Structures are given as structure tokens and as C-alpha cells.
Amino acid sequence: MLRTTTIALAAALLAAAAVGAVAGATEVRIKDISRFQGFSDNQLVGYGLVFGLSGTGDGNQILFTAQAIANMLNAQGIRHDRRNIRTRNTASVMVTATLPPFARPGGNIDINVAAIGDATSLQGGTLLLTPLRAANGEVYATAQGPLVVGGFSAGGAGTTVTMNVPTTGTVPDGAIVQREVGIQLAGRSTLTLILNDYDFTTASRVAEAVNSRFEARIAHSRDGGAVDMVVPDEYRVRIVEFMADVEEVTVETDERALVIVNERTGTVVIGENVRVSTCAIAHGNLTIQVAMRYRVSQPAPFGEGETVVVPEAEVEVTEEAVTGEEAAVMVMPEGANIGEVVQALKALGVTPRDIVSILQAMRAQGALKAELRVL
């Protein structure tokens, strides 16, 4: 079955921004767009066991779980026959955590726990003492405690219901820091700011703003992603105060003309610097529906052959009609900004998914003066 209604036709004429027009800039603190080099998080990982599960742990075919239980019992001085170890109440897990800079021994950090065997749920389990190591192999924290699981799994008689992911969980403040990452601040003569987004204009403005704040040329942009600074003599013994003063300096950032689209979800994010040149757009709201039906074909009574199921595809195509003012050609004044562009597309009655297709076509034609990034 094929049905087609009137094709929707709409057009929009969008003018480019006037030459010399200055896009609005956003004034933000330096601490919100950059970070100091050398002060970053460190990732920790460890292998552990979760006990106390209600028959939802690893099966006996997961040999490393049984081996880990045997090793744990040996460490506790408990005699056992390895052949009698059952693992349904125990699960092998990987434990991960992020150690922030300047964390001190005795402090607590959150941990994430994820099953690595065939356990079906970690709900109700308790993590046994687990050392957490960094990339250099050194232990920086130890983790232990009852898990908080945000999902569940239940079933019976061949039916199972699962909500979220029951094989992962967290332990808030479940790890205790055992060793700090050595960071030396006192006596530093230079510091480097790393921008979150690579941009030459913003880097140059950051250096100028820092120089203006301290009334000296102590900062210069190395490239579009880093700004080097010389610590003034009066701040050599007050390095933390100097870093705090730098973070509070405000600067006008510059942004690239960028359009982000996600075709899977129909999400469109458009920056304010996006401009378009003169173009006309015609777009129809086309809907295609494909339905699969199954027909039973069987031979006549006492005839030869066999009964079979024959699939039949039914395709329906619908294009919505646009009438009245929406069907008229729309003309945008010169210097059209992104707000006017969006209003024009909205007036055409297009959906976010339609806008994705329109923007891709405009970029291919050269009318969209921006980088188009498809997720």
C-alpha cells in the first residue's frame, strides 16, 4: 500500500552577517576555562571480591574467582579443600577510583565496582579489602565496604526483569588514601595554564588579562592551548595566593563557529558565531512507515506440499502538506544571526531531525559558515 499526500514546500532566504560585525563575547573566570599544568587527577584500579550475594555471584566455571577465594582463605590461615569451594555468593570485580591532586593519606574517595565474571547482580554484596594501584604499580588507596547498586534483576518461570545495570555499583567514600602524589609548589618560578579548548584568540586574551592584573608582562601564550607565566618575586613564598589570584582574573573568550548535530537523537546545538550566506531551502516532511505482516500459506486438503509462513512488507509514505503563511517564501534581513536562523527554521515547521538534514545540506552547498560536527 502506497499513499502520498501533497508535498510540503518551504523556502528561507538567510543573509550573511555584515562585514566587521563583532560577535558577542562571554566574560568568564580563568579557572573556568583552564587548569594549571601538573595538577591532575590520577586513576586507580584494583581486583577484588564481593561477598554476601544471594546466589547471584559467579558460576563455578569462573576459575579465577575460586582461585581468589582460595588465596584469601590461605592468607587468613584457614585450611580448606579447593574442590569444595562454591562461588555463587561471591563475584570477582574490578574496582576503579580517581585520586584527586593534593589528596592526603587518611582521606576518603569514592569507588566504582563492576563485575568481570558471569555474576547476575551485586545487590547486597560487600567488597573485601582491595588495594588500588596507579599506572606505576604503587598502591595509593585501599577500598572496602557495602555496595550501593542502582539496578536490580528478578525473575522466575523463565521470565526475567532487569532494571538499570545490577552488575555495577559504588561505595561512597569507600577508599582510604594511603599515599599522596608528591606535588611541590613552594619555590616554583614558572607556571603553565592549559586551556580546556584550543583557541589562539582566547590564549592571547588570557595572557593579556594576566599581565593587566599584575601590571607586568609575566605571561605569554605559547600556542593556542597553553599560557606560560613567570611567578613575580613577591609571590615566590605565596605561590598558592598567586594561583588563586590568577584563577579569579576574568577574560572574554572567543568561540569557533560550530554546529553540533546528533542524528540518533535529533539534537542540534548551534554556537552564536554561526553565520549563513544567501540560500534557499525547500524541505518536505516525509514519513515512511514499513510494517511486516506474516501470512500462512498451506496446501489444499490431501494435496502435496507443506505449510509455510510468508512475510509480506507493507510500505506507507506520507508527506505532510504546509499551507497558508508557512508555505510562503521568507526573507531574512542582512546581518542574520543564529537566533534569526532558528526562528526562520521554526517558522517553517521543521523538527530537530529536519534541521539536521537542512544544516548538512547547507554545509555541503557552502552557505553554512561554520564547522559541522556530527556525533
Description:
The chain is of the alpha+beta class and 375 residues long. The protein has 3 domains: 1-25 and 256-375, no CATH class; 26-39 and 184-253, Gyrase A, domain 2 (2-Layer Sandwich); 42-177, no CATH class. Helix content is 16%, strand content 36%. It is built from 5 helices and 23 strands. It has helices at residues 63-75, 200-214, 239-247, 338-347, 352-365; strands spanning 11-13, 26-29, 34-36, 42-51, 91-99, 108-115, 126-133, 139-146, 152-156, 159-163, 168-177, 190-195, 219-221, 226-230, 250-253, 258-262, 267-270, 275-276, 286-297, 308-319, 329-331, 368-369, 371-374. The strands form 8 sheets. Strands 4-5-6-11-8-7 form a 6-stranded antiparallel β-barrel. A 4-stranded antiparallel β-sheet has the order 3-12-14-13, covered by helices on one side. Strands 17-16-23 form a 3-stranded mixed β-sheet, with helices on one face. The longest helix is centred in the middle third of the chain and has 15 residues, at 200-214. It is flat and about 90 Å long. Mean pLDDT is 78; it is low at 1-24 and 324-330.
